[in-house]
Fold:
Amino acid sequence: MEYLFWDVYDATLYTPSGDYAFGEHPVKFKLTYLRDFDAKDIVKATNEQWEHIGKKNLVGKYDDVLLSIWPNIGKGDSLTLITDKEGKSTFLHNDSEVGVIDDVAFSSDFLAIWLGKNTSEPALRKKLLGN
Structure:
């Protein structure tokens, strides 16, 4: 994904079948960052994207939990979301677990930022879905 002229991250989606249908779990979604970011800036960007895709009710809802889970990110670091069959979310930072969100709605709402039809990055969505 690029923002203006800067590369921000590379994104990869993994599913057991190799296909993705919105709301199905388990999935693994990995972001490998190409720049440094403070956790607060990633949370802010997450809220901006939720607003963009029409999920304004989520703006600010998860700020405290995400700030307690997500570390500051350095160039080359990865942040990975792994969901179980029910949709419970586990986050990894550089392949080490950093936190869990038990709210099963969160995982689909979070993935909608990249995989939903209203994403701000339709070209990235298309690549992630293999289209």
Q: What stands out?
A: The first strand starts at residue 2 and ends at 3. Residues 2-128 form a domain with the Chalcone isomerase fold (CATH 3.50.70.10). DSSP finds four helices and seven strands in the chain. The helical segments are 39-52, 63-69, 104-115, 122-128.
